[in-house]
Amino acid sequence: MVTTYSIQKQLKGLGFKTHGWGRGEVRELPNIILPDEEIFEIVNGIYEGGFALLVATNVRVLLVDKKPLNYLTVEDLRFDMINEMDYSHRLLGAQINIATGNKTLLFRSYNQSRLRKLIGHVQHCMAEVKKQQNSHQEGQKQNLEQISQQLQAYLFAQQQQQLQIQQMQRNGVQPQAMPKPVRPGNELSDYLFAQSLMAQYQDQISQPPVLSLPPTELELPPTSQLRELYNEGMQEIFGQPPAQPVTPAVALPQTPATAAHHLLETNPMRVAYPKLLMALRNRKFGRPSFHAHSQEATSAPLPTLVDL
Questions:
Q1: Model confidence over 229-281: pLDDT tens digits?
Q2: Which of 98, 255, 264, 282 has the lowest CB atom count within 10 Å?
Q3: Distance between the two ends of the chain, CA-based, in angstroms?
Q4: Residue 139 lies inside a defined structural domain of this protein
């Protein structure tokens, strides 16, 4: 963790007064600055959230806003994230506009010299990062070219060895005297192994997932008793026997598309199946009468048509 003494020493070297504006933000810098991070420039100013402190280090640009009641706002802008940066100054004050991929920071300050120095340092760091990215891409390109040359040399040597082995076999040379197979170099072998792993896992990722669905409620075991019970329930509910005997359902293989369609469709048998148990109960014990229960609940019998 960075100590307060090291932060005070860096700010003193930059000529920044720590006892004026931005004292709360300066106290938060030891908790934000990394151990190997160095402050190059710092300036007070105003942004859309109010008063804040803008800090430029060798790694990033920091916006620190410390309000009373422990309200803290920290914005971290890496140099490789910055897409565009504009600077303008007037008679009193200057402002910078830092644009990244998804947000834009507008910062104003009355200290034109410090803000101009900060923006110059950020532009220099952005150029260095861009140069490193270009050199890295160029190194990757050269590495691929070297691997391509090694692969061509390996294939050519393997072809020459195959021709040599065929010629020796025609001359009747013993297998023990055959030359050893050509081996690729360490770099080429690592590249070929990585390509084989990528191809293997790419095939596994491209396969669609298999959906396992629970069995439907209409699947019945092939027993005559349950089939007769089901036919009686159908006759009790619909008033007529089914045209064909019910056969046990056979689970067919389902694709993801048909499985989703099966889950969304409305099956009338699922609506009628819960009523089957109630119909069988009424068939065995008799259908309960609403008037009988109401007569038992009342103390006096209801008047009949003769009494009226």
A1: 777 777 766 665 545 544 444 444 455 444 444 445 556 666 666 667 677 76
A2: 264
A3: 100
A4: no
Number of structural domains (the chain) is 1
CA atoms within 13 A on the CB side of 304: 2
Q: What string of DSSP letters covers 173-189?
A: --GGGSPPPP---HHHH
User: Which CATH number do you get for residue 68?
Assistant: 2.30.29.30
**Do 236 and 283 form a contact (C-beta atoms < 8 A)?**
yes
Residue type, 278: M
Q: Which of 97, 103, 59 is nearest to 79 (CA)?
A: 59
Residues 6+ apart with CB under 8 A from 14: 39, 41, 42
- Tokens 């001359």: give the residue: 171
Query: What are residue 85's DSSP bridge partners?
Result: 98
Six-digit token string for 11: 């700010």
- Residue 46 inside a domain? The answer is yes
Q: Is residue 195 domain-resident?
A: no
Q: Look up the domain containing 52 and give its range.
A: 4-129
Q: For position 56, what pLDDT does the model report?
A: 93
pTM over 0.70: no
Q: Which residue has the tokens 């931005």?
A: 22
Distance, CA of 290 to CA of 38 (rounded, Å): 88
Domain assignment of residue 253, yes or no:
no
3-state percent helix, strand, coil for the chain, nearest multiple of 5: 50, 15, 35
